[in-house]
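User: For documentation purposes, I need each entry recorded in a consistent format: the amino acid sequence on its own, followed directly by the corresponding structure tokens. There are two entries in this batch. Please keep commentary to a minimum and don't merge the entries.

Assistant: Recorded as requested. Entry 1:
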Amino acid sequence: MSERKAVVELPRPEEESIADLMKQVLMRLGEDPTREGLVQTPARAGKAYRFLTSGYSMDVKRIVNGALFSVTYDEMVIVKNIEFFSLCEHHLLPFFGKVHVAYLPKDKVIGLSKIPRIVDMFARRLQVQERLTREIAETIQNVVDPKGVGVICEARHFCMMMRGVEKQHSGTVTSAMLGGFRDRKETRDEFLSLVNQDSLGR
């Protein structure tokens, strides 16, 4: 039986350039990038940052991939507790949390799995929470053309937890309301009520 040869995954050119820069950062911080524990750190960091910013190479059209379906249903559709991680563009530190998305169909619905993918596309970029919330809402509005869209984003920011004010338990909530969600208080109230409802037992 012939032995299977291990496949060596070569770093991408952009990962190599990020690795070179990370090596310089480590040296500026007073570390030795050639010591055992740090030899592979610049390459790992380059790969990690490439993944954490992979949203820049994602495209809405490819994500949706035609998954829009004609319906007669016109009540609220909610996908809630969509977990995300992102990088704060001010300090390059993580922020993370959950996004709740709702829309009022006009004559089409979008495949449910596409909504978390849209969230990931914008979360995997250098972000601020306010813009992330707005981009998700506007994209769903543009793609689905519903009567309205509501997005609530709850997050905790490492730039507040690890530095600055050092408040480990503080959270930030942002919202974007478009169309019927912005115009009708009853619609917003229904959205908030359903988001806060522990309907799945967790």
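Entry 2:
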Amino acid sequence: MKMKRRYRAAVLLGLLAAVSTTTCSFGAGQVKQEDTMTGPGVSMTEEEMPGVPVKDGQIIPENLEAAREADQMIVVVGTGGCNADVFYYQKNEQENWGLAWQEAGIVGRNGITADKAEGDGKTPSGTYSFTLAFGLLENPGAILPYHLIREGDRWVDDPASAYYNQLVNTAQTPADWNSAENLPACSPYYNYALALNYNEECVPGKGSAIFLHCYTASPDNGSAGCIRLPQERMEQILRTVTENTRIVIAPNLESLK
């Protein structure tokens, strides 16, 4: 009988030790098996995964980062060379995103880049807002402030100038630049245009005068860095974009964010 009692006591002590060890294994530095693990190299559940912006070759606009703050989005996706597809998305009354239209567009003659530099002939990738509507033609009903181009208007692209990447007029501004876009001479490209807030800090050499504007006719060999659309589309865009509209530019679908 004594041997049996000792055996039962040993078994009970062993069970208690096992329970104690299991409980302590969830202390500091340990993770319970049922806890969700989201560290590097660990898969998240489907519900926890952020929405992907592209699925089966189709853009899902609500999953773009810009959709969090935008009321409308112009999405520019490079398709090779200076060619691009341009998608215009708007929210409906139920706050759902929908495609308003799609158009073939033109970008920089050397494509789209994440590392834009002055004179490289490339369009900068990223997400931007619009700061100014302007044009050689009368205001078509733009929501953003509209500047009617007049004689003497220049957009400075000389990195050595104090007015780099700024709109100036030679009647009021003493020229300290060796290079600037002569806006009155840019017909029909600047019949209607929108200025992006790219390099609004005016960092010398980072790129200047990045616009969304008109093109003439196909074939088009590409821009110095701007995005071009048919004039009818530009007129339509000027009537709808607001300060909360965003333009998203990517070299391909896979790089959309």
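Summary note for entry 2:
The chain is about 10% helix and 30% strand.
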